[in-house]
Design goal:
- The protein is 53% helix and 14% strand.
- With 137 residues, it is α/β, with parallel strands linked by helices.
- It has a four-stranded mixed beta sheet.
- Strand 3 and strand 4 form a beta hairpin.
- Helix 2 packs across helix 6 and helix 3 packs across helix 5.
- The longest helix has 21 residues.
- The two termini are 30 Å apart.
């Protein structure tokens, strides 16, 4: 099970419900042990995953929307799965081209394409939540 643990600043910057995102992503991303993944604002001009520390740093200068955050989370969580399964994934490349065309990056970019579907599920839950509040169910 994946447990997303965003910093307070990350939650404030995005306004997203990470309990709901954890619930949704845990239904689809299969990890055989409990994994607490901390999420922070990146100090760099890119997003990154630190497997040993289980930290995802997301570059919020590129955006704070649900779509952007979910897409980035899916991409970086795919790297987490790659490390768990293959154990010997390399994250240091000589050139950007080598990095971009590596098998693990191509795989992670393909996985992040699920973001639209995850966003639909998230928005559906939020819509139902609002209706329950509105009608005091």
């Amino acid at each position: 099970m994946i447990i997303l643990q965003p910093s307070a600043g990350f939650v404030k910057a995005t306004g997203l419900d990470f309990k709901l995102l954890t619930f949704i992503l845990s239904r689809f991303i299969k990890i055989h042990s409990r994994a607490v993944i901390r999420i922070h604002k990146s100090k760099q001009d890119w997003s990154e995953f630190w497997p040993d520390d289980k930290i995802i740093n997301i570059d919020l200068k590129q955006g704070t929307s649900l779509r952007y955050v979910v897409s980035t989370l899916l991409h970086e969580l795919r790297h987490y799965n790659q490390v768990k399964v293959f154990k010997s994934i390399r994250f240091n490349y000589s050139t950007y081209n080598e990095y971009y065309n590596s098998a693990e990056e191509r795989d992670a970019r393909k996985f992040e394409k699920l973001a639209s579907d995850v966003c639909k599920i998230y928005n559906g839950y939020k819509s139902i939540e609002e209706k329950f509040k509105k009608f005091k169910f």
